[in-house]
Task: inverse folding
């Protein structure tokens, strides 16, 4: 089970979208490209209405698109893998011997 967090860098592993995607966005993630999770929520899938973890990507948000008609689109988490093996806070994790009495 993956642990996801806002600010995490992810790689798109599946950019095979249905034509229906163009009804709500003008841009989609591309396979092999790296993105940043801006937000995530459990949202219904368009074809089944089953809630699934979905990401709003910083690089593809309406604020960054320059398109006044664009709306934020969330993309299913199964389309992504972590781009980094260690989260940024792991370097600051407590050292196991830090509280040693010796």
Result:
């Amino acid at each position: 089970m993956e642990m996801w967090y806002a600010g995490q860098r992810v790689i798109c592993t599946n950019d095979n979208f249905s034509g229906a995607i163009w009804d709500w966005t003008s841009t989609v993630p591309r396979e092999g490209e790296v993105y940043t999770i801006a937000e995530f929520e459990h949202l219904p899938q368009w074809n089944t209405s089953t809630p699934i973890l979905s990401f709003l990507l910083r690089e593809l948000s309406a604020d960054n698109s320059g398109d006044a008609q664009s709306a934020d689109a969330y993309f299913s988490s199964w389309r992504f893998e972590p781009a980094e093996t260690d989260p940024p806070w792991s370097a600051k994790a407590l050292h196991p011997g830090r509280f040693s009495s010796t």
